[in-house]
Every structure is written in structure tokens, then in C-alpha cells.
Amino acid sequence: MKCRSTEEVKPLEGIIGQSKAEKAIRFGLEIEKRGYNIYLSGLPGTGRTTAIKEYLEREAKNKPAPYDWCYVYNFKDPYRPKAIKLPPGRGIEFKRDMEVLMENIKINIPKAFQSEEYAKRREEIIKAAEEQQRRILEELELKARRQGFIIRSGPTGIMVTPIINGKPLSEEVLMKMREEDRKKILEAQSKMIEEVREGMRQIRMIELKTHEEINRLANEITAYTIEHLFTLLREKYGENEDVKTYLEEVKNDIIKNYNKFLEEEREGGAEEEEEIPFMRKYEVNVIVDNSQTKGAPVVIEYNPTYTNVIGKIEKESRHGILYTDHTMIRPGALHKANGGYLVINAEDILRNPLAWEALKLSLRQGNVSIEEPSELAGLTTVKTLRPTPIPLNLKVILIGTPLTYELLIKFDPDFKELFKVKAEFDTEIDLNQENIEKYISFICTLCKKEDLKHLDISAVKRVLEYSSRLAGNQKKLSTIFAEISDVIREADLYARKENSNYITETHVKRALEEKFYRINLIEEKILELIKSVTILIDVYGKVVGQVNGLAVIQLGELTFGKPVRITATVGLGREGIINIEREAELSGPIHTKGVMILNGYLTEKYAYDKPLTLAARIVFEQSYEGVEGDSASSAELYALLSALSGMPIKQSIAVTGSVNQKGEIQAVGGINEKIEGFYKVCKIKGLNGEQGVIIPEGNVEDLNLSDEVIEAVEKGVFHIYPVKTVDEGIEILTGVKAGERMSDGKFEEGTINYLVDKKLREYAEKLREYREEK
Known about the structure:
By secondary structure, the chain is α/β, with parallel strands linked by helices. Helix content is 50%, strand content 17%. Strand 27 and strand 28 form a beta hairpin. Helix 3 packs across helix 6, helix 17 runs parallel beside helix 19 and helix 23 packs across helix 27.
């Protein structure tokens, strides 16, 4: 490292050590066929979201800003608002132009109808109609008088009444007249009534015609008044056919409803509320505004509910009735990311089934359609808007765990067709010069972004050591950047308390110690139980058939190792090795497999000239929870070999490692925690210089121990023994040579293998004798 602190390096650009994932992401973004969306697989904390966000933002800069989208009123089908596409920034401009247009119309139309020309032409139409009506009435009255009738208005309408000597004829006088005279009068009256009715019909037709002529005049005046206003907009948006069509529909609707613009200002809430929906018809709802967007949009939806992803139709209540219109349509993440990239956490959206199904439907159809969630679920609902769908052109990046990916592949048939690109984030990267430099740049970026103190070279080294420990390998660095970032943030606190210019190794070390101290209460309690001999663990002396195995306990953030006593008993029988944990239903399948492998080892090693005659019991003492994993299989085998050979095992040495049927010791997980866990037990019981741990040689590269354990090893008060085979391990545990098989097929006398073979031979002979006696 050539720098003295992270202050001297440049901030990070790009993704650290994820070349495989980066190549997959690049492929997914370059291919523009449908279905090539990306699933970004990785564990939480690996910086997946931050990395993909920064990568997409770099890519987006080189792409053009996408179109604006607006919803406008549909004059042919009010329940299906129309979507209009406009160049970026023109959506808001079009909305403002429409607002200015309507303001001008609201001013100009009343002025036009207050003009002398309109009043004169309207008066001419009315006077001509009144003259026609007057002539019809005069002719009817004249004709009626000639025939001996008068026309009067009554409560039930127009009445035709007979007269004699200029006076109306009463009903009483009419009834006293001769039948013949009365009949003539009534017949004449009936004919006159028909003629009056015809005259009234003609008058009504004149009224209707007059109304039509006035309306036609009003339409003509309105059209003339607003035409120049629309001409300006048509010229401005002439290349957009959708806008031209919409403007024509708006103009025709205004002409049709000119009277709405002539009404004087009203008083009273009911009338005011009645006016609002009408004027909203002409409003433009810009749901996607890219006026400030530079390049393609990058949208990260942190709360992917149905409405947040697809959009929603809001409602307002008036007099207890829910009301909605096109101005209440709200966009979802798909609208905002259209023409760019949408990033969603897979686990989050899967917790919202409707959102997940709607997202898949939108990607399948290539458009986004805003619907009520109840409609999508197939439930009945009140009639509402169904906006026209908006075409989609975007990449969706799902961020999730490997397990989620496998479950989706297995159980969701649509997933594979819609997310054809998988990019995998590794949890570890190679510890090389390039990645070290990038790691330091990452730390620099974090410090600058969050205003933390920079790290000096000693602190950087300590952080890298911790990262390597998280990776579980000396030649790797962890990509769980959330863990690394937390340590740096906490170290910054201690640096500030000391008014230090930089975060130093001391601050990082304290942050790690304090973090572990805050969560290790369970470990402390277990150590107390071991110290008080409530849990029996020996770290001195030798015992036959007993060995200290090592287990790892993980409780949330806390991971620690603890020793566990493993014992084996043997006797004459044919049962073979019986796993007591399995019999008690406390053994997991991998642990059970590990015990079964011991049978295979014993058979190959010792049953070449005799049957394997053995009844053995293996158990984890004081184990009250389930046992899983095969990392204790070598310890179980050592206990079994000790019981068969009669050679005691050193209790000062603990064992971890799995074994195969050939007697090879295999690497296991949690090696650092196991070693440190046994060291802590030895420390509280008293270190005597003989204690240590046998580990698989394959785990040597994984060692990344605490300073205290390293110091103890360097001083020779604690030991670590890497082994390749069972024979190497049993020699360390017993201090007795394992023994090689000689040319005659027998083992060297006095060795562990010789004693085991001898015991198994005795069991076989005794069993044969027992059978012969029976």
C-alpha cells in the first residue's frame, strides 16, 4: 500500500472484484429483446444495490432522456382517459399551454357574447320568430271569430269558447239549446280546436327552430372566437397526431358547451363543486415529467407495493360520494423508470403478491395498465377509470438472494421467461493488489460520503484483516461491505472521542471488540457454566474413549465456538456404530452421514481378515439441542479408536475436522471461532502450555485468529496442529504411534492400529465362540 491514509486515494469507481457479475449485467443491458431482464443474485450486505445503482447511473448518462407521458380526458369514453406521448420536457409545457388556453377562452367567450354584433343577430332571430308566432295567433283568432268562437288561455291550456252576440256561451245555455244547434256548435268547436292545436304546434316548431338558430349562432361565435387560439397550439404541436386530435376534441366540446363559459360567478358550495369536474376535463395530467432528467432514468423502488409499482387512481369524496377523473391518476415506478432502469428487491416485491403479478403482466404485455387492485384480484368493484395502457421500454433489475432465485425458478413458470439474465455477486474476492487498492478506494468513498474521519495505514490493514476473516480465507477479502462499513462508522466514533485526526488501528480494534461485547452474552454464560463445572469439559489429563470436539453456535449476529465432550463406548455385538443423537432424534442428516462414514473407515482399515464385530455408542455429552454437520466426525472416530485400543486421549487437545472412508481429514467451517472458543475455555481453566487444537490441513489458509490467540501460539502456551489423516491426529492425541500395516497384513505391535485390530479380532473370535456354544 503506497498511501499513508485513505485521504490520499481516489474514490471508488466501478464494482470491486465482481467481473463475472459485471459481465452478466452488461450483457443484460445491451440485449434489447423482451424478457432479458436481470436477476442480481447475492447475499444482503454485499453492496448489490449501491453497486448496481452506480453502474446504471453511469450507463444512463449515455442514453437519451425518455418521453413525457400525459393523461387527458377522453371525450368519446370518459371512463378511459387517453395517454399522450411527448418529447422530454414538453409534457409540462403542454399542460401550461392548455392552462393558458383555457384562461383565454374563459375571458374571450363571454366578451364575444357581449358584443353588439352577437346581440343584433340574436335579436333579429328572436324578432323574426316572434313575428311568425304573432301572425299565426292573429290568423287563428280571426278565423275563430268568423266561426263564432274566441280563443282564451285557461288553466289547462288554450281553450276555444263559442260566442253569441259577442259574449261567451256558458255551458248551461249550451245545454238548453236544441240538440241540432248544439251539435253544430260542438262539431265546429272540435274543428277549431284542431286548427288551434296545429297553430300551437307550428309555434312550438318556430321556438325550436329559433333555439337551434341561436345555438348555431352561439357555436359560430364561439368557434370564431377560439379558433385562433387553437391554431397557435396546432402549429406548435403539429407533428404529434395525438395532440392534434385531442385539441380538435377539446375545441368541439367547448363549442358544444359554450354556455358553461357564460355563467356568472355563482355563490354556494353546491354550484361551485358542480363546476369543478367540468373544467377539469380540459386539464392535462402529466404523470411522467422528464424535463429535468439527464439521460435515462434510474429508479430504485424501496417499497414495491402494487400502487407504488403500477400506479393508482385516487378518489375524492363529495357529499359522501367518491369521485375520480383523469387528473387523479398517479404514476408508479414502471412509469417513472420507462425508458430507463427499474431496480426492485425481490424479497420485498414477493411480499406483495399483487405487485409481483402486476409487474410480470406488464413485462409480458410490454405495457403498464393502471387498474384497481380489487379488479386484478378478480373481486367486484364499483365502476372506475380504466386508463389506456402506456407502452413499456425498460430494464427491470431484481435484487435477491440465491435461495429466492432457486425458488422462483422452481415454482414460478413466468420468472424464467421474464428474467433471462442472472448476475451473481460473490461474497468474496481474491486478495490481490488490484482488489486491495479498490478496497481502499471503497473506504475512501465511504468516509467522504458519510463525513467520517479517514483511516491511516494501520487502520486500513486491520480492516483488511477483518475482511479476510469474514471471507474465511487468508487469500480472500469479503464483499459483505455492510459489515465493513459498520466497523468503520463505529471506529469513527472512538476516533472523534479522542480528537484523533485519523481512524487508527486502535480505534478499529476497539470497534470490533465493543461490537462483539455487545452481543456475546450467551457465550459468556456458557463459559461461566464450564468454569463452574456445570458443563463438563476437561482440559487436563488423559481419558479413554473421550475427546473434546468443537462446535460453532450462531445466534443472529453472534457466532462463537465452544468445546463439547464426545464419548464412545464399545462392546461385543453386531449392531455396529450407533449414533445416540440419531436415536434420540437430535441428529441432522449430515451428522448421521458422518457417523455412517466411520463404519466405512473401520471396515476398510480393519475388516480385511475378519468380520467387523462391534457394538459401539457415540454421543455428544450434555447436548440438549439438535446436532448437525460432519465437522465432529474425526473427533468421534478418535474417541472410538481410543475406546477400542484402550489408549487414553489428551483432554488438553480439542479436535475439529470431518473424515472420509479413506481416513483423510477434510476442511470444515468456522475454524477461527472453534479455535478461539477452546482457547477461551483453556484460559479460564488455566493454560499449561500443553493445550491446543487439531485442525484439518485444508483449513490452514482459513486461519485468521485474534491477536491474543496468535500471541499465545507464538509464546508456545497454545498450539495448533494441522493434520492430513486420522493416523496423524491419533498420534498427537495419544502420544502413541498410529502404526503402518506390514507385509504380513498386520500392524506394528504396540501401535494404535495394532491395538484396535487386536480388539476387533478378539470381538470376532468371542462372537464366533458364543455362536458355537449356542
